[in-house]
Specification:
The protein has about 220 residues and is of the alpha+beta class. About 40% of the residues lie in helices and about 15% in strands. It has seven helices and eight strands. The chain has an eight-stranded mixed beta sheet, with helices on both faces. Strand 6, helix 5 and strand 7 (about 155-160) form a beta-alpha-beta unit. Helix 3 crosses helix 6 (about 170-195), helix 4 packs antiparallel against helix 6 (about 170-195) and helix 4 packs across helix 7 (about 200-215). The structure holds zinc ion.
């Protein structure tokens, strides 16, 4: 095992704790993966293992066709979808999947989350889109993710009747997107209960998104 693979195993194992911390997953559902920098490999959660039992050593290394390269356990059943995204989107370094409840409720209705919060404009640059209905077992989920997110500012897609897939420049960014997606889904759901949330004018969405992605944070 190279030191790079070791490092990615540690990162991916640790990031799974964020999914439970933010209550985005139940039982063994959900998964995080990361591309191994400089290699055509990814590290992903093993299938059917409890979150508290996940360790760097239990993570699974696959190639970008989803075939097992290194690991004692079977890779996540969503491996093909993650692999498809890495093959089609070279800029993506991390992928996350959850069935987080509020976001998945929007997916169940097939309804995109309208951009009615400044935090949503910051993070997603507009509405959070709906992807197609797709059965697990072939490339349909991966293709649906890529087709929906290509050329879209959003790093999150609500796959219809299923749940959330997020992408990021690395796995931590994809986890952040999954956390923010659920937060936005929850707040907009609450806002809907007593009225119609007010849209943010498109030019203001653009200004918020540009500012957040250029000057926000510690890098000024
Ligand atoms: Zn799923």
């Amino acid at each position: 095992m190279t030191s790079t693979v070791r490092q990615v195993r540690e990162t991916v194992a640790a990031l799974h704790a964020e999914l439970t911390r933010y209550q985005l997953v139940v039982w063994t559902a959900g998964n995080v993966s990361a591309r191994v920098p400089g290699e055509d490999l990814m590290v992903i959660k093993p299938s059917g293992v409890s979150y508290e039992d996940l360790t760097p050593d239990s993570m699974v290394v696959c190639d970008l066709n989803g075939a097992l390269v290194e690991g004692d356990l079977k890779p996540s059943s969503d491996t093909a979808a993650h692999a498809y995204v890495y093959r089609a989107m070279p800029e993506v370094g991390g992928v996350v999947h959850t069935h987080s409840p509020y976001a998945t409720a929007w997916a169940a209705r097939g309804e995109p989350i309208p951009c009615v919060l400044t935090a949503q404009a910051d993070e997603f640059g507009g509405e959070i889109p709906i992807g197609p209905f797709a059965l697990i077992g072939n490339d349909d989920i991966g293709r649906g993710i890529v087709e929906t997110l290509s050329g879209h500012r959003s790093t999150a897609v609500l796959m219809r009747n299923h749940g959330v897939f997020t992408i990021g420049e690395d796995a931590r960014a994809a986890v952040k997107s999954a956390v923010m997606c659920e937060s936005v889904a929850y707040t907009v759901h609450l806002a809907r209960q007593l009225g119609e949330p007010l849209p943010i004018p498109p030019e203001c969405v653009d200004a918020l998104f540009d500012r957040y992605h250029s000057v926000y944070g510690q890098l000024t």
